[in-house]
Specification:
The chain has a domain of 30 residues. Helix content is 12%, strand content 25%. Strands 1-2-3 form a 3-stranded antiparallel β-sheet, with no helix packed on it. It is elongated.
């Protein structure tokens, strides 16, 4: 009978939780909330309004850059580009350009 009780208690308790997986205990403030401190000020405990918000991103740093299809073959620089031109009669003319640049 005693063996059955000991086994049942062990089965309910389970193995101990490792220290790194235990929930962290919250740090207590130096002065409890709502009480006066040494200078006579009342301590108010609250979360910041923007605690859950992400900071604004720098628009210049994360601006979308144009995609350039370019590579170098030896000293020659090769790039593929698209342009939009206008014909003399007013029609638009899309163009695919392959540019080769050589240093002088």
């Amino acid at each position: 009978m005693r063996l059955a009780i000991v086994m049942a208690v062990q089965a309910m308790a389970g193995p101990p939780v490792p220290a790194d997986l235990r929930p962290a205990k919250p740090a207590l403030p130096a002065v409890p909330c709502g009480e006066t401190d040494a200078r006579g000020d009342i301590v108010v405990c609250a979360r910041a309004r923007n605690a859950d918000r992400l900071p604004r991103l720098d628009a210049d740093r994360y601006a979308q850059q144009p995609i350039r299809a370019a590579t170098g073959i030896g000293k020659v620089r090769v790039s593929a580009e698209a342009e939009q031109g206008t014909l003399p009669n007013g029609q638009s003319s899309p163009r695919a350009m392959l540019r080769l640049k050589l240093p002088f």
